[in-house]
Amino acid sequence: xxxxxxxNEGLKxxxxxxxxxxGSDQSLDYPFPSFIKRAKEKATPFDVWGRGTQVxxxxxxxxxxxxxxxxxxxxxxxxxxxSGRATSFIELAELAMMQAGYLAExxxxxxxxxxxxxxxxxxxKMLSFYTPKISLEEGxxxxxxxx
Length: 147
Prior knowledge:
Shape: elongated
Strand order of the largest sheet: 7-4-9
Largest sheet: 3 strands, mixed
Radius of gyration: 17 Å
Number of strands: 9
CATH superfamily: NAD(P)-binding Rossmann-like Domain
Structural class: alpha/beta
CATH class: Alpha Beta
CATH architecture: 3-Layer(aba) Sandwich
Number of helices: 5
Order of helices and strands: HEEHEEEHEEHEEH
């Protein structure tokens, strides 16, 4: 409602909803960098928060920044910023371990808090002005090189 009010007053407003943005310099409070750290250390077993079945839509921070620029440049009013790819924490752990050259038992903790069970966006609107360039696999490889 506030955005519409601002538009009615002649202001340009862009509202973007980024999903699970990630990058190599992120705090270990987030799953992506924590999983990268565990994989680099070749953790055995590989601990995953919750049941591991919770699903996220990961989009690299470079794509978030580029998509934001394109959205503003193209006068997009509202859009999700996401890949549309559903990735479970178990799958993320497996991808990180494969990048590290090993596979280990994945140990879950069903009693741990996990947040939302499923958070995946629809990228249809975003794809009309921007296509993500960095796949999750490439983002994982970059994180291994950068940290």
